[in-house]
Amino acid sequence: MLKNLVEYVVKGLVENPNSVRIAVEEAGDVSIVTITVGESEKGRLIGKDGKTINAIRMLVNALCVDGKKVSVEIAQQ
Q1: Distances from the Cα of 75 to the Cαs of 45, 62, 63, in angstroms?
Q2: How far apart are CA 24 and CA 72, in angstroms?
Q3: Which residues pair with 69 in a beta bridge?
Q4: Of 38, 49, 60, 61, which is the most exposed, with the fewest CB atoms less than 10 Å away?
Q5: Residue 54: in which H helix or E strand, if any?
Q6: Which of 37, 31, 22, 35 has the alpha carbon at shortest distance from 71?
Q7: What is the phi/psi pair of residue 6, to 5°?
């Protein structure tokens, strides 16, 4: 569910949705969501002053009701 939510939101933001890759890794009580997009799409995903990526992080954390923490990161290429 977490992967699908992030994928849906990110694909709606970028110009080339086929380039979006989402990976979820469990590390103890933390889920790490890694978003991979094309280099030209990173600015659109981050947003002005990081507002877009921070909004995605808040949305994901608000929907996690099982007490787990979630970290949303953008992959470095």
Answers
A1: 12, 22, 22
A2: 9
A3: 30
A4: 49
A5: helix 51-63
A6: 31
A7: -65, -40
pTM of the model: 0.87
DSSP code for 67? S
- Burial track 21-58 (b if 16+ CB lie within 10 A, e otherwise): ebeeeeeeeebebbbbbeeebbeebeeeeeebbeebbe
- Digit-coded pLDDT (tens) for 56-74: 999 998 888 677 889 999 9
As a whole number of angstroms, the distance between CA 14 and CA 69 comes to 26
| pLDDT-flagged residues of the chain (< 50) | none
